[in-house]
What we know:
By secondary structure, this protein is mostly helical. The protein folds into 2 domains: 20-108, Zincin-like, CATH 3.30.2010; 112-248, no CATH class. The chain is 52% helix and 7% strand. The chain has helices at residues 6-14, 22-30, 33-48, 91-106, 116-133, 139-143, 147-155, 157-164, 173-181, 202-217, 223-227, 231-238, and strands at residues 56-59, 67-72, 75-81. It has a 3-stranded mixed sheet with strand order 1-3-2, with helices on one face. A hairpin with a 2-residue loop joins strand 2 (67-72) and strand 3. Helix 5 crosses helix 10. The chain is globular, with a radius of gyration of 19 Å. The two termini are 38 Å apart.
Amino acid sequence: MGFAGLDELRERVRSVKPHHYSHLLSLLESHDLEGACLSTLQKCSQILQWEDEPLVYLMVGFFSPDGFVISMGGRRVIGIGLERYKSFRNLPIILAHECCHYMQQEKSYQSDRPTLCEAMLREGICIVFSRMVVPDRPLNEHLGISRGRLNWMRANERLIWQAIKPNLRLTKRDAIQQYIYGIPQLPADVSNTTPEVKSQKSGLYIGFRMAEEFLNSQPGCNMKILLEAAPEDALKAYNADMPYSVFS
C-alpha cells in the first residue's frame, strides 16, 4: 500500500466535519484524563526518579500519533494524540512508554542514528518499563497486539530471530521501522503457511525479550541499569547465538 499524496491528504483534512469527533467528545466527557495522567506520572516518577517531571500535552491533531516525545520551547515534552483513541483503556500504558522514551532522550541513553539492534532494545526497555508501571495488564496490551499474535510469536521466537539477526546493523530509518513494527521476511519454509506467520511488531517483541532477559540476568538490576544496557550485553543475556564482535 502506497502513501497518500499531498493533495489527497489536504482533501482528507478539508473533509473533516465536527460530527466526526462526536465519539472523542463523548469519551472526554466521561473520563478524567488529567487525573489518569497525573496518577501514571507519579508511578513513573517512583521508578525513574527523574529530576524534572515532563510536561504532558493532551492534543487533537489530524496526524498525531498515539504518543510521542518532542522538543518544544527548548525542552522535551510528551504529547498524547487523542484522535485515534476508541477508548482510553491503554492511555496509562502509552504514557508510561513515552515517559521511558523521555528519560532515554534526557539522559542521552539512545543514539541519534541507532542500529536496528539499538532501536529494538530501546523499544523493548520501554515495554518492560510500562509493565512495571501498569503491571495488571497482559503483555499483549503493552505490545499493542492481539493475544493470538503474541502466542504465535512466543511459539516461533527463533524463526523471528532468524529473520532479524542478519540485519541488526541496519541504520536506515524506514528499514528499522519495518522490522520493528512491520512484517520482516521470515524463512521461506514458514513464510507462506498462515497469515500469522508474517507477524507485525516482530522486532518489537524481540526487543522486549532482549530487555527482559537482561533485566532477569542482572541481580539487583533497576531501571537505571536497564536504561544504560549496551546492545551486546542484552544480546548475551538473550542468549541468541549472536557473534557479539559485530558491534566492535
